Amino acid sequence: MSLRNYGTAARVGFLAAAVVFGLSGCGKSHDRGALWKVVHGRCAPDAAHKPCTVYDEKDGYALLKDKTGRGQYLVIPTQKVPGVEDPVLLKPETPNYFAEAWAERGHVAQSYGFEIPDAHLSMAINSRPGRTQDQLHIHLDCLTAYARAELDKNMITETWSLVSLYGHPYRARIVPSLDPSPFRVIAADDMSIHTLVITPAKHGGFILLDDMAHVFDHGSGEELQDHECHLDDPHHKTMIMDGMDMGEHPNGMM
User: Fold this and answer.
1) Which of 46, 60, 92, 252 has the fewest CB atoms within 10 Å, counting from its CB?
2) Per-residue model confidence (pLDDT) at position 96
3) How far apart are CA 170 and CA 184, in angstroms?
4) Mean pLDDT in residue range 226-241
5) What is the 3-state secondary structure (H, E, C) of 24-49?
6) Measured between alpha carbons, how far is 162 from 244 in angstroms, rounded to an integer?
7) Among 2.60.40.10, 3.40.50.2000, 3.30.428.30, 3.30.365.10, what is the CATH number of 33-234?
8) What's an example Gene Ontology biological process for this entry (predicted)?
9) CA quadruple 26, 146, 160, 174: dihedral sign
10) Are 201 and 118 in contact (CB under 8 A)?
């Protein structure tokens, strides 16, 4: 499928999904404002900004330990930004939330209690139909071993190409840095259906992955993350050597 046809098919598929699923997303029964209530209602007024690990009013973001996984963190704007679809993300003066998230990656390894190479880390933001919260949040955690292996064996360049991951067609390209913001690199007419994932490239720069929600694909790039970090967990490596690999657990995606 060409990249042009990929975009058209995804948009048509998403319209069909709207009819089938009623655009309910995967969080219909959840409080979709819970993250905003934590960051704005608890972290902002608290003298120590708890329960946030970091609350940087100057740079406009908070870092919050996610309840899912041992080392997963969320980077969340301190201003009300519903999600990937907000036009403010395309403005040059808006904080570069992906760059801020990457700068906080050391907290992930600290929470896991073991070293994690940058190449095994990732950042992901889910599409509107693929999320359960209506406050923008970037998931910062490890990649799955499968995703890392698939990306490394594909010839990804600075030109868009297609990579199939977990049966979903991601566009992939190398970007030399996180400036400009990946939101501005994508800058699609309808950003709401896009899910973005970023991880270091093998020979420098970053791999930018972009999928679009459509039928049977909610657009949750978080599927590429392993919230147990099996790639680097010494205990998991020991089980593999002993022939007792228990596999990866499903993600609890937001």
Assistant:
1) 92
2) 98
3) 18
4) 79
5) CCCCCCCCCCHHHHHHHHHHCCCCCC
6) 34
7) 3.30.428.30
8) CDP-diacylglycerol catabolic process
9) positive
10) no
Which stretch of 28-32, 87-91, 144-148 has the lowest confidence by average pLDDT? 28-32
Structure-model confidence comparison of residues 201 and 6, the more confident one:
201
Tell me how far CA of residue 177 lies from CA of 36, 152, 163, 186, in angstroms.
Answer: 29, 18, 21, 14
Amino acid present at 57: E
pLDDT of residue 244 exceeding 70: no
The per-residue pLDDT for range 142-201, each reduced to its tens digit, is 999 999 999 999 999 999 999 999 999 999 999 999 999 999 999 999 999 999 999 999
22 or 245, greater pLDDT: 245
Average pLDDT in the 28-42 region? Answer: 89
- Count the Cβ atoms, other than its own, within 10 Å of residue 236: 20
168, amino acid identity: H
User: Within a 10 A sphere around the Cβ of 24, how many other Cβ atoms?
Assistant: 10
For the chain, domain boundaries:
33-234
Instruction: Transcribe 172-211 into DSSP letters.
Output: EEEESSS-S-HHHHH--S-GGGEEEEEEE-TTSSEEEEEE
Per DSSP, what are the bridge partners of residue 65?
73
Taking a C-beta distance cutoff of 8 angstroms, is the pair 93, 72 a contact?
no
Residue 108 has phi, psi (to 5 degrees) of -65, -55
